[in-house]
């Protein structure tokens, strides 16, 4: 179960398959893409040079607007509540604390009601360390060798962006742009993935994204929905996240941030109790 937990951490979510399940409400999946189809304009490749130039200019404007919303920070800390559902189990009321030092370290602590802390994880650009307090185990990996735990290709920066709420796998190679009064949808490609994005038409804020593996043998995808944006200075942070992960089975997660701080002093305590087995 610890491997499942860490895989979900990499997807920007925390689960605690480390302890027995409690009954919880079912998590509804938001359909993707969400768009107002009452009126739309498609911005596709055109043989007409003037139309093509206008489309290229618009695409650049779109990307600039999205990137203008990127959250820049030195340190980040958050407290959140998590509900978790798979085909075989449901859990609710999970507590998580996250702390980050930009481009350096991600620290996560997961607690269960009554039980208390059940897992603590530290991820750096080079390493992953995790303590499973429920089973008294510690996991130590070089990040490049952590595929047995994580099971997806990623890097530290992608995970950092996923947690903070910046778009992941956004590239300049965008196409299939559809504009509506409320939402702009488009597709882009990266080395391993094809990604679909919905952004709000008024401020280019993220509404949804879907990342799909190009390797059809995996058939993996993750859908991220963002909502309940709150402003903290110049930063707009999505305090409600919905995640749907699908491969051979599915995982649904609700994440509700109830406290978020930027650029405040943070610490990253991590110790391995004596007697824990290493894996």
Description:
The protein is an alpha+beta fold. The chain has one domain (2-278): outer membrane lipoprotein receptor (LolB), chain A, CATH 2.50.20.10. It has 4 helices and 15 strands. A 15-stranded mixed beta sheet has the order 1-8-9-10-11-12-13-14-2-3-4-5-6-7-15. Strand 13 (235-246) and strand 14 form a beta hairpin. The protein is globular, with a radius of gyration of 20 Å. The chain starts with a helix and ends with a strand.
The count of DSSP E runs of length 2 or more, i.e. the number of strands, is: 15
The run of helices and strands is HEHEEEEEEHHEEEEEEEE
> What integer value in Å does the Rg equal?
20 Å
Total number of helical segments? Answer: 4
Largest sheet: 15 strands, mixed
CATH topology category name = outer membrane lipoprotein receptor (LolB), chain A
**Portion of residues within helices:** 10-25%
What is the name of the CATH class? Mainly Beta
Class by SSE composition: alpha+beta
Biggest sheet strand order reads 1-8-9-10-11-12-13-14-2-3-4-5-6-7-15
Which CATH-level-2 architecture?
Clam
Cα distance spanning the termini? 13 Å
Quote the beta fraction: 35-45%
Q: Oligomerization state of this entry? A: single chain
Low-confidence stretches: 1-28, 34-40
Number of domains: 1
- Given the C-alpha coordinates, what overall shape results? globular
CATH H level, superfamily name: Lipoprotein localisation LolA/LolB/LppX
